[in-house]
Design a protein that fits this description.
The protein is mainly β. It has helices at about 90-95, 320-330; strands at about 10-15, 30, 35-45, 65-75, 100-105, 110-115, 115-120, 130-135, 135-145, 150, 170, 180-185, 195-200, 205-210, 215-220, 225, 260-265, 270, 275-280, 285, 300, 305-315, 335-340, 345-355, 360, 370-375, 385-390. It folds into two domains: about 10-40 and about 65-100 and about 175-390, no CATH class; about 105-165, Thrombin, subunit H. It has a 15-stranded antiparallel sheet that branches. It has a five-stranded antiparallel sheet with strand order 2-1-12-13-16, with helices on one face. It has a five-stranded antiparallel sheet with strand order 6-7-10-9-8, with no helix packed on it. A hairpin with a 2-residue loop joins β6 (about 110-115) and β7. The protein starts with 9 loop residues before the first strand and ends with a strand.
Amino acid sequence: MACYISTKQNRFYAALESSYGTVAPITAADRFTGRSLKIQHEQERPKRRDKTGTRTYRGIAGALRARTKYELKTYLYGRAVGSTAPRFGALLEAGLGGAPRVQNSGMAVTSISGEQVTFGQGHGLQAGDAVALAGEIRFVMAIPDSQSVLVNAPWTQGQTAGELTGGAVTYGLAASVPGVSLYDCWSPAAAVQRLLRGAVVDEMQFRVSGDFHELSFSGEAADVLDSASFETGVGGLTDFPQEPVLEDLMEEPVPGHLGQAWIGGSPSRVYTLSQARVTVRNHIELRGNDFGTLLPRCVVPGDREVLVDLELYSQDGGVFDELYQAARSRTPVPVMLQLGEQESQLCGLYIPNLIPAVPEFVDEETRLRWRLQGSIAVGTVEDEIYVAFG
């Protein structure tokens, strides 16, 4: 027996469930690197109001309903070159709802004119899909014809005709959200192993411009299972699942100072971004109060909110005038954040219509900083935000 359990010996796996609350099996490929996983399992305790002749708590007979909350934190990591999805892709899909769309690499570019890109073949792209090219990622805004697209911002690295696109994976929104099985594995094998079944991503957040680009996922789960108290039949299991055979996993986090920010209808690159936070809230309720049930049975998504907090050092004129006027008139403007600066380390966040909050002027430093908190995205049908990896 070890004298203690090292927190460095902690491994995470995530897999989408075919039906809510039924544990999804995992393979070594479902493992991802994370910072921390907090799980809080609480039983609801109704208050007894009967008169017992004493102040002593006498307990409650029978099983009680329980709520299981979790929060997982991780970094943005580099991936294999190509259209490989990030290892925590199941959590992204659970937070946004839409299945990933894969854009394969190797499509030849015949011409680039501003935001218009023309290919030497039919591209098969849709609005919101990502295009990765020579260390940058952009999103399709419009499709003039089967071989051309208009992207949300111009290219800055001297991309020219003859180059080949890189692979990309784009996640969009959907009306419903799936449940996830989230495994919390430890060494030694005799330690208590845990498993969240029916985990839903109620809130997903991207934090930009820290030491590393950070992501967090939080919400509720139908239940938490563990190897110490497991009972046959729970979650569709006969035995508590074993961790797959370990494979080497060397993921490098992307430094937080690498990336680009584009704001405005005539997109301008902003170099003075000091912090950014993009939050997707699903306002999910779990169907857990039905008579005769103790645990949640399905997911009920509420109205979605996509919120953006920005802090920028102010400059005179240009995009800052447009941003301030848009905030006062509540006029939507497009915003795109590119995290990372080279192939296999790119993540793009594209918000086509963001109503900016009126900036707060922060004058505590020698340079004026604008703080825009609670800017909200609007859309038509499941199109407030797109997230892509390239």
